Amino acid sequence: MPTPAAVLCGLGTSLPERAVTNRRLIRENGLDSDDRWILERTGIAARRLADARTSTGDLARAAGRAALDSAAELAGGPVPPDIVLLATTTPDRRCPATAPEVAHRLGLGDIPALDLSAACAGYIYALSCAQALVAAGLYTRPLVIGAETYSTTLIDPRDRDTAILFGDGAGAALFRSGSADEPGALLAQELGSDGARAELIQVPAGGSRLPFGAPGAAPEKYYFAMKGRTVYSQAVRRMTASSRGVLRRSGWSAEDVDAFISHQANQRIIDAVADRLRIPAARCHGNLRELGNTAAASIPLALADAAERRLAAPGARTLITGFGGGLAWGSHTLLFPEARPHACSPHADDDKAPS
Ligand code: UT7
């Protein structure tokens, strides 16, 4: 019997209502920056920012709800998940994990649910885990969610180096066990990490290395810090190499790629990776301009956006690649899904049972 493939059968998104343009962000936070600089250097024009009452779990639950509705529409009936994987760097609480509460609020009973932390590469890592669980026959319907609220947890709004880059949101995909020739099938994967460069992207204080209130834990150390230029070159290098690796494993050349979806961090990074891979701009899809960098949510949000706008046909050969703090990176090939994405606002029908 062939190994079962994880087949994406439902897609969901949830975004905070508040859309904040560069100009407004600069004005509200007194940033020494300008709209043109941000747009030209990053490709970001606006981002969605969560309000104080909206947590990562709220966004994750709503995106999960939307993915279940999308799957039910495609299948003509409910497709109940049997495990929840939540990729996030900004959980609701430092302990416990956020995923069990999300599963509970989705009315999924006592199925296993866990958080997975690999910063902006989190969703790619979670996909790989889901794929492995399905291939092993251990679980058949993983719900994989990426959700973040960087703006209310990790980012210093007065720091122009980081405040301009990040946005909040969540994306989710439901998978079922199927075969590798179906639209939505996850094919090859490639993952990597380089902990020798951990300090390039970090929140120095608040963990066990520099606990809360410890000597040296100055207030600014509780915020996200990044060595932008070095991260930029690592991102280009690692995502290009990882993409090449996964293409090799898939038996595809770059010319075979119909749709390319990269982690949405900086348009110049995306263009540089696509250029090195020789993937034409018309096949590169994303929503960086409107949403900024949503970390672990960026890949599912970009995939849902491409599916919503029907930028690729079901079954089209798709390459996704991600990179982030750790350093951690990874890539997947998949066949473009058939599911029509649903969207759900973070506080809609909070306690509705799954359809
Ligand atoms: O998702 C996780 C992975 N993260 C990433 O992939 C992010 C990677 N890094 C980047 O995207 C870019 O490095 C940044 C967008 C963070 C910065 O862009 P850059 O082109 O690397 O700028 P830079 O840091 O080299 O700075 C260039 C100039 C500097 O001025 P001088 O020294 O040339 O006079 C900066 O002081 O731009 C200045 N600058 C700014 N100006 C206006 C830096 N940040 C800003 C700003 N507004 N926000």
Topology, please?
Blueprint: E1 5-14, E2 19-21, H1 22-29, H2 35-42, E3 46-48, H3 56-75, E4 83-87, H4 99-105, E5 113-116, H5 122-135, E6 142-148, H6 150-153, H7 160-163, E7 169-178, E8 186-193, E9 201-202, E10 225-226, H8 228-250, E11 259-262, H9 267-277, H10 288-291, H11 298-308, E12 317-324, E13 328-335, E14 342-343
Parallel strand pairs: 1-14, 4-5, 4-6, 11-12
Antiparallel strand pairs: 1-7, 2-3, 6-7, 8-13, 9-10, 12-13
Properties at a glance:
355 residues, alpha/beta, Peroxisomal Thiolase, Chain A, domain 1, six-stranded mixed beta sheet, four-stranded mixed beta sheet, globular, binds oxa(dethia)-CoA
Q: What is the 3D form? A: globular
Low-confidence stretches: none
Strand order of the biggest β-sheet: 5-4-6-7-1-14
Q: What is the CATH superfamily classification?
A: Thiolase/Chalcone synthase
What's the total count of β strands? 14
Count of individual domains? 1
Q: If you average the pLDDT, what whole number results? A: 97
Counting helices, strands and paired strands, the structural category is alpha/beta
List the helices and strands in order: EEHHEHEHEHEHHEEEEHEHHHEEE
Supply the number of helical segments: 11
Percent of residues in helices comes to 25-40%
CATH architecture: 3-Layer(aba) Sandwich
The major β-sheet equals: 6 strands, mixed
Supply Rg. Answer: 19 Å
User: Strand content of the residues, in percent?
Assistant: 15-25%
Bound molecules: oxa(dethia)-CoA
CATH top level assignment = Alpha Beta
CATH topology: the name is: Peroxisomal Thiolase, Chain A, domain 1
Distance between the termini: 32 Å
